[in-house]
Amino acid sequence: MTATVAFLRSKSPAGVEPRLDKEARTLAEAGYDVHAILWDRALEHPVEETRTGYAIHRVRLRAPEGRPALLVQMPRWWLRAWRKLQALRPQVVHAIDLDSLLPALMARRAYGSLVVYDIFDFYGPMIALNLPSRVREVLADLERRAARRADLVVLPDLARAAFFGDRKPARVIEVMNVPEERVVVSKPQKFFTVFYGGQIARDRGIRELVHACESVGARLVVAGHGPDETALVPMVESSPAAMFVGNLSYDEVLTWTASCDVVAALYDPAIPNNRLASPNKLFEAMMFGKPVLTNEGIGLAELVRKEGIGAVARYGDAASIQKALEELMLSPSRCSDMGTRGRALYEARYRWDAQRERLVSAYRELLGG
């Protein structure tokens, strides 16, 4: 009998996230009956949708992004996700991040579902709000305990297993957040173009990127959505050096990545989870041979420096970002060399094929063949 797998994710930006989509298609191709239960917080997508190989079932419940009021709606998300799980009765519930784990554990208790806990981001360190350190510690401890109850834990980087300390979950695998190889036709740009695609949030250096691009004559293209759109999008749109292109589909993100000169990946190191970031945009830049602009104080900067695949500035310092951009703009050959090294690194270490095999093998072991 074909095993049913249900993904749980408390958000559905641009319909479905690239990482979730890759994992769902991978399991469908391996012969599983795959479903994804997603929380549509902005009521932007259909309740039911069929993607390549799997079905999407959305909980349409309006809620703010990245605001304390979101917590009020969490119990309603858990309840409605649980009802959808009851209808599906999956053999495996693949819960993404802590805010989707409770319904998965309820399913295990009710009818014996296996629980896969896929940690895109650790919850306590991820929150950008100014939380007391004690609150973050409580959330971190809760997540460690919850992870030990899962049958399988999936991390985007095994280095993050240090979060668990000496009491690690019984089964932990690494499935890196790398893109599938694909051919994308780039669009010629009139100006030196910096592309930022991701969360529209205060901890991503967007304000400083705008000021730096204004100073050096570069063009900044911003795409995405997030908790600080109200403050940041008007600032981007009012700048003669920047443009906001909205919350794009993944294919459109890849087109802009292939068409730009530099991919921006700035993260405030004061947010604990940012120090561990291994974002899509890094590997997408490598795939298309584009240099990466990042900042000191995060693990991403260490890779960029070590491999010579981009420039590193100081976070929150527009002058430092401006200097890094100027150096890239004034040396096309240097940019090209960085991109070539990034592409070689992608081919050698960061293809999706290896991640696909690791995920499928873990599922087969979990389900006994």
CATH architecture identity of the largest domain: 3-Layer(aba) Sandwich
The main β sheet shows up as: 8 strands, mixed
Report the mean per-residue pLDDT as an integer.
93
Shape: globular
Number of discrete helical segments: 13
Q: How do the strands line up in the largest sheet? A: 3-4-2-1-5-6-7-8
CATH topology of the largest domain: Rossmann fold
Query: Would you identify the CATH H-level superfamily of the largest domain?
Result: Glycogen Phosphorylase B
| Overall strand count | 14
Number of domains: 2
Q: What level of helicity do the residues show?
A: 40-55%
Kindly provide the radius of gyration, computed on alpha-carbon positions and rounded to a whole number of angstroms.
20 Å
Assembly annotation? single chain
| Intertermini distance | 12 Å
- In the predicted model, the low-confidence regions spanning at least 5 consecutive residues are none
